[in-house]
Amino acid sequence: MKNITDSFVSLGHWPSAGSFGLNTDILATNPINLSVVIGVLIFFGKGVLSDLLDNRKQRILNTIRNSEELRGRAVEQLEKAQARLRKVEMEADQFRVNGYSEIEREKLNLINSTSKTLEQLENYKNETIQFEQQRAINQVRQRVFQQALQGALGTLNSCLNNELHLRTINANIGMFGAMKEITD
């Protein structure tokens, strides 16, 4: 294990690497790397993310409005059903002797069907809202990942020239060769 660690540390001392060196001080390099990555993400993803969130918010609000309209219609139907129920109850008083049990069955069926309709509409509204929220979250995640990847590739491509790229490849090949010799 010590030989592997020594091979990583000695990479900075290779004469073929020129001014290229490996900074093994983790406490000094991680905050810098993190600040660069976070800065790139904020710079490239801020506008896109806010636009996506605004669009999703509008869609969700439209869905909620549509669900509220459906709920309003269901409430109107419920009021009509209740008015019909009151009418049926008045008729029931008139025909109590002949068909009291039949009228009670119709009343219960009417109440049950209206309750089921309201429950179905409420469930549909909740499912629609959940689906739209999940879809919005997935789209935002995908967009942020794409933007971060494009930004990182652009940064890498702009920072590497051919000579530095070839030296990096040669150093990595040498490092993998040394690791292979150690493991063999």
What does this structure look like?
This protein has 184 residues and is mainly alpha-helical. The chain has one domain. The chain is built from 4 helices and no strands. Helix 1 (2-9) packs antiparallel against helix 4 (162-183). It is rod-shaped. Mean pLDDT is 79; it is low at 1-17.
Outline of the structure:
With 184 residues, this protein is mainly α.
Give the ordered list of helices and strands: HHHH
The strand count comes to 0
Radius of gyration: 35 Å
Helix content: over 70%
Assembly type of the shown chains? single chain
Number of helices: 4
In percent, how much strand structure appears in the residues?
under 5%
- What structural category arises from helix and sheet content? mainly alpha
Shape: rod-shaped
Mean pLDDT: 79
What is the count of distinct domains? Answer: 1
From the N-terminal CA to the C-terminal CA, the straight-line distance is 13 Å
Name the poorly predicted regions. Answer: 1-17
Largest sheet: none
Pfam families: ATP-synt_B
Protein name: ATP synthase CF0 subunit I
Membrane topology: Single-pass membrane protein
Subcellular location: Membrane
Write the layout of secondary structure elements.
Elements: H1 2-9, H2 26-94, H3 96-159, H4 162-183
Observed structural traits:
mainly alpha; 184 residues
